[in-house]
Input
Amino acid sequence: LRCHKVQESLLSSSSGYSNYRGVLNWCVVMLILSNARLFLENLIKYGILVDPIQVISLFLKDPYSWPSLCLVLVANVFVMVALALERRLAEGSLSEGLGAALHTLNLLAILCFPAGIVFIVTSITPVGAVFALAVYTIIFLKLFSFRDVNKWCRERRGAHNPAPETAKKANGAVGLKVVTYPANLTYRNLYYFLFAPTLCYELNFPRSPRVRKRFLLRRLLEMVSQVWGCLHLLFVLQWMVPTIQNSMKPFRDMDYSRIMERLLKLAVPNHLIWLIFFYWFFHSCLNVVAEVMQFGDREFYRDWWNSESVTYFWQNWNIPVHKWCLRHFYKPLLKWGASKWLAQTAVFLTSAFFHEYLVSVPLKMFRLWAFMGMAAQIPLAWLVSRFLRGNYGNAAVWISLIIGQPIAVLMYVHDYYVLNYEGA
Output
């Protein structure tokens, strides 16, 4: 007849209860409803500011004079130079010192050449310039890895070490021939690497046994459904445009309370854009490319949303870049005698350089906001890891993501507006 026993309330941490799916659904519904109200209020107050038809026509207008596309095609020249240098080094007709110098010049040209073209050719739009520079940055990182791995292969060959068995095991299950150095120095091998969803070169990548048609179809449907995502992105931009426009006067007057209000209002739509981009690119796009190319390693991200430290976030939200930094930058610095703290700082500063490169060059102005934002992650990472743990650390990471990016956006938009429109 007993109906009571010793037990904790479900919301107590000591109860061991963890099924909060209904609460999560409630949060999603509340988020949708609140954002829908804000969007309707914005539409009623300002009208249509971002016309989807005009945006589509902008990309379809005069496609044969797209300077950014031509710039991307020219990148093949630098790829051919890197392959030719490696072939000469493999033959022994080029010394290691001279080969390293020529590789360095080629890599520097990959970064400097497109930047110079963006400044010279006035018809390149900022959006097209960002796309072209992103492609060149990816090629720079890939060819850097290509050069390093082939150098390691020459060193192993000089030491008469046998070929590693791991490649044979990774590919033997699907009946692929194991490639050894220097047989890997072919157009087919290099261009497979250039299109593969990775930045780290290997002579023998892990391969999936077949193309899973149902998996590929699901990912393609996700990409196609991004048509809705693009429309949603336009809605978010519709939300952001008046917020950014209304931010100019507070910046001119240095009205800090109004600046903070504009910043908080911009934070939510900016964060939605970032989340849409993350899922579209890192999950849908990279999985489609990997499935078509039968590329076996699909770890493009880890559980960064559970990050309890800033360092954990940067190590897990973009695995291809993290692997490249770890393999070709962080570990070599440690090998050369640098401390772990110095190596981590160098990685953050290098990342800051590329962030600034991809923003300042297309906008044709140098303000270093992106660089300083990334550099600020160094003391922020120390503070969070030193004073915050668990959920508090995770909340700090989310706040830095939601608030940090809008600060840089407002800074760049303000400076771009002052530079191009205020005097007109």
About this structure: Confidence is low (pLDDT under 50) at residues 163-175.
